[in-house]
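Appendix B, example 12.
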Amino acid sequence: MKYWPVLLLSLLPLWAQALEVGERLAPWTLLDQFDQAYTFDKHAQTLLVARSMEAAKLVDAALQGQPKGYLEARHAVFLADIQRMPRLIAKMFAVPHMRDYSYRIMLDRDGRVAPRYPGAQDKVLWLQLKDGQLVAQHEYTTAAQLREALEKARP
């Protein structure tokens, strides 16, 4: 009986495994801030993941002044994990405010997708992809770093 807790604790890292270079990312479908469906597939070259409001603000600051279609031109997708946001706040205030942005945000309202991509809460996770496989990953802590990386990812 004493071994069960040890066994369970030793299996915990398997549930939160980091992504490995060369790993194929599974497709998913989420709604954006306009309730339009988007299916993530092998055509995406960059996936930006924000797990908190602080991380989402970094993305917003990095994209300030960019024209509509800026992310799409770079084959980049922005995924925001909003599962911890109270639904009423999301529905009444946050999502309507997001409609003013010049870029699309795929909203993970139920935590079905974002947990697949482990990383720090306060950083933006950048997953570089080729044909659906992970080529590289980075984490950004400042809008300036993220903006510079996006500029280098020109189409």
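The longest strand covers residues 133-140. The beta strands are 28-32, 37-40, 46-50, 76-81, 106-108, 124-130, 133-140.
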